[in-house]
Amino acid sequence: xGSTAKxxxxxxxxxxxxxxxxxxxxxxxxxxxxxxxxxxxxxxxxVSLYGKxxxxxxxxxxxxxxxxxxxxxxxxxxxxxxxxxxxxxMGGYRNVALFGxxxxxxxxxxxxRSDTIIVASINESTKEVKLVSVYRDTYxxxxxxxxxxxxxxxxxxxxxxxxxxxNMNLDLNITDYVxxxxxxxxxxxxxxxxxxxxxxxxxxxxxxxYQVETSKSLGHDSFTKVTKTGMQTLNGxxxxxxxxxxxxxxxxxxxxERQQEVIQAILDKAKSGNISALNKAANTIFEEISTSLTxxxxxxxxxxxxxxxxxxxxGFPNEQYRTxxxxxxxxxxxxxxxxxxxxxxxxxxxxxxxxxxxxSQVEAISGExxxxxxx
Length: 375
What we know:
Layout: H1 16-49, E1 54-55, E2 63-65, E3 81-82, E4 93-101, E5 114-123, E6 128-134, E7 139-141, E8 147-149, H2 152-170, E9 176-181, H3 185-191, E10 195-199, H4 201-217, E11 230-234, H5 236-244, H6 251-272, H7 275-286, E12 289-291, H8 295-302, E13 309-316, E14 322-327, E15 330-335, H9 338-350, H10 360-373
Parallel strand pairs: 1-12, 2-3, 4-9, 6-13
Antiparallel strand pairs: 4-5, 5-6, 7-8, 9-12, 10-11, 14-15
């Protein structure tokens, strides 16, 4: 775990490790910016627009919490699996799951894979928010004692199973979630008047090719081709298509950089946008959100929104324990020591973990992943 590295100045050639670290930090930065944008718009419009949110009630009886993990005072749902760790080191923190799904038809529940999985841990005293991205291809227990890529949990059982997957593997006590679909991204960008993006020669043909499928999936009869390179204003369909490019140098890592670039551009427009544009964007975003939070919980969470700050960000598996490999026919991200990895995660999120040792459930998962992957 660690803070996002500062960008280095000058033209010094980066080492392979530095390039990989920079790519990873850019991916994590996407989650930070999405969360900040969500907080900004939620604080402004939650009262008037709450009725548009897809509200999902999660019963505490269905939530899995590993043996040894006790629910904290802020945990009051009845359906989520949470490991029984003493309340100690997680007391005073609110842990929320954030999911970004590949949804083109406003489907935000079961049947849709979560391409973004984030644990947002809020220190309720200092208002510092720490974010940890759980890499979508990480080989884990899917919350039902079957094993596979982490993003399959949401597809199999919606947000409830995805929460249980996080709690079981990471010894957390999450009971709430927020899910955002990407189908509304194009309309949000259009509501803001487009976003400024620099397009290079290698990207133009792929961008236009993706526009064909993107425009159809979003119900548009036509699209406008991008015909030049350089900095320019992209409309919603163009920007979404730009985010989807993965066939240039850098593959998926470069695609993540493009997504970060578009999110940053959205933030820039949102900060400088007028009230009318922000209202249109907020309406679009709220129609693309599913959550377990009640209006009262949203307001309690955000009543001091001006005091929130994004602290350190990290990823799971941690680089120290992370490797990749094939499991069956699937290419996965693998933690070589989940027990130690989870301990490091808790240290990163909660600081003092003198009362914490990994639960028997995490130890069992750690052994099973090792047995199944040979890592």
